[in-house]
Task: structure prediction
Amino acid sequence: MILVVCVLLSILGQVPQIFVSAASGADADRGGGPATVRIDWNQVIVVSKTTATLQLVVNPMMRRGSPIHSGTFSALASLNTSLIRFVPWLPYPRLGVAELFAPTRLPQCWVVPDSPGVYLSCPPGQNFESVEYATFGETPSGSCGSWNSSPSCSIDITEHVASLCLPNFGCYVNASSAFWNVTCPNGMPNVLAVQLKCSPASQETSWNFGLIDPMMEDFMAATEGKSPIINFSTIPEWMWNQLNPVHIPDDPNEVFWNYESGTSMRDPTLQELGDYYERLVSYFVNGQFTDEYGIVHKAKRKYDIPYWEILNEPNSEHANSIEYYTELYDAMAPAIRKAAPNMKFVALAMSDRNPDWVRYFLNDSNHRSGYIEPEYISYHFYANSGRLNATKFEDFFAQADGFFGQVAVIEKIRKKLKPHWKTTMDEVGVILSGDPDGGPINQDYWAAASALYAYVLSRMTAVGIDAVGESQLVGYPSQYPSVSMMDWTHGKPN
Result:
């Protein structure tokens, strides 16, 4: 095992293709002497098409001025690989969400599926002024700002909503059939539909790339020509039907795990969602976009972005079903293509490797007609253990063996339904107990975690997986320190 690990690690970043050959010999008994490994390099099993890569998740240690900024991006630039994944992520909304608040003066609308309730709010600095529309029951026809009169299977709840919401900044409204005592025929689902007008304000949006641009610039410079995968995975929270008010910290470096709330979008047509990503991608790819009020926002530079991954671990981050994720994908991909006609996509990004998700998503009948097929599907694997007992690190490999069984199931589905789609395992690593906050780590851990990655890479190379991404380049206390490939104190490799 040790020799194979050393060989693999020595060639990563040096040779774009490797050969996996049969090895003979047996490991020494546990507690005995060193293992003996004999390799016959002339017996070729498969020619590798697997890319050894990694991911970089946005956090404050990536910002200019951090003690490890220069070392991080120098290390990234030195890697001879491709498909490096860049993920501005939810714990730091000011570093990853370009429009943190809804535009002022636009109608504020929510369509909420039957549920305990929803928290409604105005953009910062405004209060609710009037209720323009409020029903419970059948989904109204039309769109936000122009909903038609109440459908037949609905009740008007304008006075009730006004009593709760006016003249407040935010309010909580019950959205359950039991509360409103409404049952529509033929099993038609009930929804709460509300349009509120906020107090007068100047015509403004909150688009702001001031904190995002420097990290994007540094990442794209370090990965130039290496076909990176970009994933701005965090949807602005105001687009969701929120369960509770979300108060974003003023300090962009303050970790905030409660940014995401809600399981459905307030705009059931998903037009609002698509518009956001079309503008976001246009800013990076075309160097400009036009906002909701016709104002043009210009970027300092534009980038060649070949791949965009649609969301991250949607099964957990908003507890989405595969049906709803498929709707989100089918709304986002064509919107992004409007801004970037040559963009290719990565889909799923599953944390639990659910074969039912794969089977559903790869079935064309579950998508919009003429949907844009992704180039890759993606999923993740993390082993785990305690932080201090080195003998427990051996369990990483048994956990990986279990993961390989899941891979076999997924590959069988993929080859049957979409054999031309590729696979990237874009998060592979170890998360120790106590993370994301961290704590003392046995120093043998870093070698064990590296060996696990080499083990997964070698096995997945034989299977024919297209890319295996180590997770991740930079972590630190409060941001999963056990996954960090860099020492967060001085910027040298762990």
Observations:
- The CA atoms of residues 347 and 377 lie 5 Å apart.
- Residues 1-30 have pLDDT under 50 and may be disordered.
